[in-house]
Amino acid sequence: MHEAPIIGDTLALDLANTHFAVRGKPVEGLPNKEALERWLMSMDASQDLPPVSVVDSACLASFIELRDAIRMVARALIVGGGEIGDAVDRINDFARANHMNPRLVMEHTGLVSRFESDAVGVRQLLAEFAWDAIDLFGTERKKLLRSCPAPDCPLFFTKDHSRRKWCQPSCANRVRAARAYRKHRRTAVPEAH
Ligand SMILES: [Zn+2]
Question: What is the CATH number of the domain that holds 153?
Fold first, then answer.
């Protein structure tokens, strides 16, 4: 059982990256609600998300719907073209799903902004992911959006410093190792006469 990689660049892309690959084969990182619960817990550890209430199968379907919409817009922004009207509508729908008012909340880490809502936490969470997608795709941040150039890696990341080329160090290592292997083979094969 492989867990989806959490790169930690941005909420929207971490959700997009729950569609990932292991040895070149696509993997669904959210195959059931238990997997979504585990993923949200891992995300909470790195991103300080609001507490999650009940995760049910409707919630899983919503997360996957939003994830696929984010992937579609990200891909269109990177490679150009593509009909993204429906995907944009989806993201907007999730963003406006709740009528929420921001408020300051004192937590153990200090003051944080949270949104007051009478809806369950999961819908609030979905809105936070959708808002991050809106901010990422609709502002200058989109210039940093990249898809990983490593072979068979479907992950997205933001190029947050000029020398960053890969989604994660593991992809850089994989590409370097493959390059070294090819070089070794070229030099190891004796020339035919
Ligand atoms: Zn990668």
Answer: 1.10.3300.10
